[in-house]
Structure prediction request, 471 residues.
Amino acid sequence: MKLKIFLPALLVVLAPASGRAGGTAGAQPFDFLFLDANARSVAMGGAYTALASDSNAMIYNPAGLARVPRHEVTFMHNQYVQGLTHDYAGLALKQGVGFNLNYLRFGDLNRTTYSSPDGTLGRFAIDDLALGAGYGRTFFEGVSFGGAVKYIREKNDGVAAAGYAMDAGTLVSILAVPKLTAGLAVQNMGTSVRFLNDKEPLPLNLRGGLAYARDDGMTFAFDVLKERNDKIRFAVGAEALLAKALAVRAGFNSRNDAGIGISAGVGWNWRDLSLDYAFAPYGDLGIAHRVSATFRWGKRAESSEKDDTSRRPEPERDAPEHRSPAEWEAAGGAVAEETADSRFAEARRLIARHAYAEAEVELALAQKLIQSEDRQLVQYFERMGFIALQQREIARAKSLYLEGLKLASSLGFSGSHVADAYEGLGRCLAAQGDDANALRAFKKAYGVEPSSATRRLVEETERNLEKRRGP
Prediction:
């Protein structure tokens, strides 16, 4: 579908993906499918294949839907020159389901011909639309898969072409390198679409990427992309999280043929709301600006945004060790006598925000306040093991879990923390490929009074391990 109108430059501003060596933007059908939407991804150069565990997953990698920790929705509206507008909305549920809408409208254009170039023949409109639905799920330890289907339509002066396309992708947490994630996605698979007398292929695209998220708030991403009829392109991006609220980002995308390829932006996180801004210079065409808003709600999913190792259910909120000092006073308790409990409560809050280094400090302070044969020591080792497991430090996590279980055995303790330690040990063994002993650890969790959430998790993990082992 060749749009013979003078708007290629505007599409270059909108989508670096549209820029092609030796060609012009807008010369291929359904180029709008490459438009970046959320300002975070734009600022990071579009290097988002391994980062897309949010409401933008269906733009980059549907496998990210499996790792969405909470329900979230993203909205973006941009008003460009000459009446051109771009609207995007994405919804991702923590159950792994996602939906999105992508709409581009060029506004009302003057109809011209070679014999009447002054635009006195009336006006017409051009618009592009994509509606998508997807699903992602983690099937193995640290391995997620996802797929999406979308209805796509391009309309030019009342003549439309429509069809369906499919995307598929995977995300893999590299256990040998904590915090490193790899992603791979195939986009826009489907049959050719007819426009008048022409049949045009969909813009098939293959993208792969790596992302490394450090505990200090620094994130780095790298993507390689290969679209049909285009050379290999790449994108890089970096993000620094300051004071747990302000994000500063920069990126580069080799697909931006109109400019030098750089982009930058900032983001602000306040409770459940994120506001993001990005800009990218495009040479003589000027600077493109983008603003988006994301809202999150609901409790955190049992599966983490990183991988299945964080599917550990947390102890109940009303348990004594998770009451704040103010809550202890309201309940008639003595704050001074429950300092270790308040440290555990603070550590839990920090773990929920992935602030693992700070959580370890709180746990260390709690340990100093615990007697040598107190059952809370089991909780200390279990929480420390949990943190190590989230950081992919499998050997360290295994050692901590074993230390806690050794103490519990010697003192005859049982309860939810002991069950969680057995469950965590089972995950460590499974990550090391020792499925037989992992299953033994999971079975031991049943005999030490696990919580209902832990019991369900162990049952599900056992089933997955049995399937992996085969008959």
